[in-house]
Amino acid sequence: MGAIYILWLRELKRYVRSRVQIVVSLGQPCLYLLALGFGFGPVFRQAGHGSYLQFMAPGVVGMTVLFSSVFSGIAMLWDRQFGFLKETLVAPVSRMQIMVGRTLGGATVAVIQGTLILIICLIAGFRPQNWLAIPTAFLFVIMIAIVFAALGTAIGSVIKDMQGFQLVMNFLVMPIFFLSGALYPLANLGPIMTVITRLDPLAYGVDGLRGALIRTWHFSLPFDLALLAGIAAVFLSLGAYLFSKIEA
User: Fold this and answer.
1) Mean of the pLDDT values across residues 150-164?
2) Where is the chain membrane-spanning (predicted)?
3) Who has greater pLDDT, 73 or 11?
4) What is the DSSP letter of 184?
5) Distances in whole angstroms, Cα of residue 30 to Cα of each of 60, 67, 113, 137
């Protein structure tokens, strides 16, 4: 447990000390929130769906957690390049502990980022229908962070160069975001789009967040939570296996 805590704390300290990273990482979610939230608001309202900001804010929170947690895998490539990963792997601790510590650290940073964006959404005018549902919303934030931090660790264990990792992340992350229903309802889609969106893990996280915060969902809260827990178990197992095979 000591090794897990130290690696978790290292990821957290590295994030807190990088003020530029904190500010820059909030830029894209704020752009989506302001440009789309207020830009498409009148159109969404005229269609009889209410406030687009209310609908979109949970999706922006999910997007922030997705980006932060997946790209936490980049840190592994930096550690590999500068030799820290090699020193970690030869330490007298199991690779499972190393992987769990790094994954939990990345997930914690993603939760902090999601919390900051939620605060910005509240300042912009978003209001949950029930403030008592905030803990349930944070449960979904945590699940999203764990799922995609484990995915980032798994991919970072396989890819050895920064350019390759960025290409894979751009190929995966943007489709995951746009197909999650963060920006549009999942109802009344065509058969092909329906199948694709149901294969997207983030769709269940965003649906759970939206259901907890504004009482609007496409599936159901228990189904979303159970499915996210199952996906988290699969990705953690995959990440642990791939990390056990890594060569510094």
Assistant:
1) 79
2) 20-40, 52-78, 104-126, 132-155, 167-187, 225-243
3) 11
4) S
5) 8, 13, 12, 20
Instruction: Give me the residue spans of the domains in the chain.
Output: 2-244
What Cα–Cα distance (Å) separates residue 129 from each residue in 44, 55, 126, 133, 181?
A: 19, 12, 10, 8, 20
pLDDT at 42: 67
Coil, strand or helix: which one is 222?
A: helix
Residues 68-101 have pLDDT tens digits of 888 877 777 777 776 666 767 666 777 778 788 8
Residue owning tokens 């909030």: 26
The first and second tokens of residue 147, run together, are: 């799922």
* Amino acid in the structure at residue 14: R
CB count within 10 Å of CB 158 equals 14
| Per-residue CA distances from 114 to 9, 59, 220 (Å) | 19, 11, 22
Q: What is the DSSP letter of 91?
A: S
143: tokens are 């699940």
Q: Which residues of 215-232 are buried (b: 16+ CB within 10 A; e: fewer)?
A: eebbeebeebbebbeebb
Return the percent helix, strand and coil in the chain, to nearest 5. 80, 0, 20
Residue-wise pLDDT tens digits, 21-57? 777 777 777 777 777 767 666 666 655 566 778 888 8
Report which DSSP code applies to 217. Answer: -
- Which two tokens mark 167? 């290409």
Q: pLDDT (tens digit, 9 = 90+) per residue, 161-195?
A: 777 767 776 788 888 988 888 888 888 788 888 89
